[in-house]
Structures are given as C-alpha cells and as structure tokens.
Amino acid sequence: QWQEEGRRWVCFFQGTNPLVFRGLQVAVGVSASMGYEVNSLAVPRRAKQDMGALVELETPEGQVTVQSVAPGQLDRLLREGFDPRGDVDDDGTGQSPFPGNIDQLVLALEP
C-alpha cells in the first residue's frame, strides 16, 4: 500500500530524541543518492561510554555485516577476540573507533 501511495522510504526512530528529525532527512537523502537499501544513523562515542555501538564484522569467507552491540558488552567482546585493551579511544580523534548506535534506521521500500 505504501508503494502504491508513492512512498519510497520507511524511517524508524526513537521518539524520545526529537533532534533526530534533522538527521533523518539527511539520511534519507544520502540513502537515495547512494542507492542504499538500509542505512543507520550513528554518533561519535567515547570508549566505554554507556551506549550501544556499531561494529563491522567479517567472516573468514569475507562476508561483511554491521551489528549493534549492547551497552556494556563491547569492551568485553573486544578484549576476548580483538584487542586486549578493549574499547579504547583513538589517539587522533579522542573517540572510540566504534560509533554509537542511536537506533535510527532508514529502509528503502523498493531495492
């Protein structure tokens, strides 16, 4: 029905964050211009900050996926399999290399 009405995008957002509407407009524009079927907004975060993080994972076969890691879990996961220091800020940016997940999604209705 949405496609019949001419709608091309669906946005999921957290209602407690009114500032996201500015970012969602930009995310839809970027998604359209880049041909993305799925897009997610993220923000810089400090290491060990209590918010979910987005990480890129690659299987041994080379398949890449982006996953959200729950708050408080990233440091432990990194220590177990990536870096014994865990979630640490980058020296150049002062931020974690893993952006914060703010639960804002943009989906194309038609690929």
From TrEMBL:
<dbReference type="InterPro" id="IPR029044">
    <property type="entry name" value="Nucleotide-diphossugar_trans"/>
</dbReference>
<feature type="region of interest" description="Disordered">
    <location>
        <begin position="80"/>
        <end position="102"/>
    </location>
</feature>
<dbReference type="GO" id="GO:0003977">
    <property type="term" value="F:UDP-N-acetylglucosamine diphosphorylase activity"/>
</dbReference>
<protein>
    <submittedName>
        <fullName>Uncharacterized protein</fullName>
    </submittedName>
</protein>
<dbReference type="InterPro" id="IPR039741">
    <property type="entry name" value="UDP-sugar_pyrophosphorylase"/>
</dbReference>
<dbReference type="GO" id="GO:0006048">
    <property type="term" value="P:UDP-N-acetylglucosamine biosynthetic process"/>
</dbReference>
